[in-house]
Amino acid sequence: MKIYEKAPAKINLLLDVLRKRADGYHEVEMIMTMVDLSDRLEMEELQRDTIIISSQAGYIPLDEKNLAFQAARLIKERYDVRKGVYIHLDKKIPVAAGLAGGSSDAAAALRGLNRLWKLGIPDEELCKLGAELGSDVPFCVTGGTALATGRGEILQRIDNPPSCWVVLAKPPINVSTADVYGRFRADSVPSHPSLGGMMEAISTGSFQRVCEEMGNVLEDVTLSLYPEVAQLKESMQRLGADGVLMSGSGPTVFGLVTKESKLARIYNGLRGFCKEVYVVRMLT
Ligand code: ATP
């Protein structure tokens, strides 16, 4: 039997880092939502007790470093599954881009294997398993829109923001999340985004206010390392996106846009100097 799972990318409408904890993780406040730019996982049961990963993308690990592999291994161990699985990853989400592609693949593998092997694991338990694989995985298990606190694994579901178009542009650089967090200094942040402001903007359904309240304290770190990310932000603003922000630790920059008529200008303007540009809907 073969099953399929969609693994959408996430964007951070708000990302604040409060402090570094004694366990080495950072205490964060993030508002995350999904966009319709997705990997697709094909999963097939194998009678042999093994995990095999393949992908059309030549640039991701296919061994135990792959997060989908780790998800399969974890679920097999915990639920004593003696069968194997072949997972094919059709990658569409750019890698190391700040869009949680690997985390979303891991979450989709957890959801898919729960179905394939008829394990009946409730979402809450899948999220706990996900937290063992990475801080963004629990959010990717359930999707939607959420406030994530702690190291990102404590989730509170909130309303979806007003639906809109999302233009994503990834410059040709790979940013290491660990490196950006390593360079981040909580005491030198000039101003923190307002979580209360963003929560209110979302709950009142005000698109304009959502755009105004967007903020990401990691931008200063990544923008100072890679000026091209700052340039991309400026270009997207100049081309008319309503709200522009870097996602996660970057380097992807996204712009929220309500008017479809603006999209061609923004897309064509960005494609002039950035090869990877995507126009998708917010998944609401
Ligand atoms: P985040 O926003 O959660 O930090 P990201 O979008 O910056 O994630 P990913 O695309 O998840 O980054 O990839 C980060 C690293 O994880 C890559 O360098 C890649 O080698 C490794 N990786 C492991 N499994 C996967 C996977 N299934 N897809 C993509 N990358 C993977």
Give a summary of the structure in a few sentences.
With 284 residues, the protein is of the alpha+beta class.
Features:
284 residues; alpha+beta; Ribosomal Protein S5, domain 2; Alpha-Beta Plaits; 10 helices; 34% helix; globular; binds adenosine-5'-triphosphate
Walk me through this protein's architecture.
By secondary structure, the protein is of the alpha+beta class. The protein has two domains: 2-157, Ribosomal Protein S5, domain 2 (2-Layer Sandwich), CATH 3.30.230.10; 165-281, Alpha-Beta Plaits (2-Layer Sandwich). The chain is 34% helix and 30% strand. The protein is built from ten helices and eleven strands. The protein has helices spanning 67-78, 101-116, 123-133, 137-142, 177-183, 195-203, 207-213, 219-225, 227-238, 263-271, and strands spanning 2-20, 26-46, 51-55, 84-90, 145-149, 154-157, 165-170, 215-216, 243-246, 253-257, 276-281. The strands form two sheets. Strands 1, 2, 3, 4, 5, 6 and 8 form a seven-stranded mixed β-sheet that branches. Strand 3 (51-55), helix 1 (67-78) and strand 4 form a beta-alpha-beta unit. The protein is globular, with a radius of gyration of 19 Å. The two termini are 30 Å apart. The model has no long low-confidence stretch (mean pLDDT 96). It binds adenosine-5'-triphosphate. Adenosine-5'-triphosphate is lined by residues 60-61, 65-68, 89, 95-103, 105, 136, 177, 248-249.
